[in-house]
Give the backbone structure.
Amino acid sequence: QSALTQPASVSGSPGQSITISCTGTSSDVGGYNYVSWYQQHPGKAPKLMIYDVSNRPSGVSNRFSGSKSGNTASLTISGLQAEDEADYYCSSYTSSSTEVFGTGTKVTVL
Amino acid sequence: QVQLQESGPGLVKPSQTLSLTCTVSGGSISSGSYYWSWIRQPAGKGLEWIGRIYTSGSTNYNPSLKSRVTISVDTSKNQFSLKLSSVTAADTAVYYCARGVNPGLIDYWGQGTLVTVSS
């Protein structure tokens, strides 16, 4: 299975909004509403930020939102803050009953 | 609060078998409709899903690793394990164990353990 495609890096100034894309196929992202997003700070384990395309777990800021159109899912961070600087990974369930992660995006707060 | 902790050798020789165990605390590994996963991350690179096991014993593996991977569960010890055979330097990575709730939804992660493959 091939990794989902994400931009290598995205940057924005504090207070701005940024969007990270996650492109797959009809066998993963496009075929199921089982897309999740994870935030990973250096040296730390990933943290679930969004699940089932657009749902936020308890405790996650409402500045984080998710959506999907066709084979591409997106994570939007609004009101960008310094603490949002991290790596972000999407993941999707697949038609083979497996899971696949995205290539990862480094978010930089300017 | 569920906690997961990986344990096992930090150094494995090429061609040997990598063996890791994940101990689950704060809840029974058998309770609820959860599955238990292994994910790895080479230094400076992205996450790679290795596989999952349900407490029924049913497993799913990454096709690229399937021939070398075995995941098992020991409900009496509240643990699940990973075995990866015929390792090479390319298998050097931080290995995470994790709990899944729904397809594609991993809600709890271990802290990760670095495994280096070297002679």
The interface with chain A takes residues 37, 39, 46-49, 51-52, 60-64, 96, 102-107, 109-112 of chain B (CB under 8 Å).
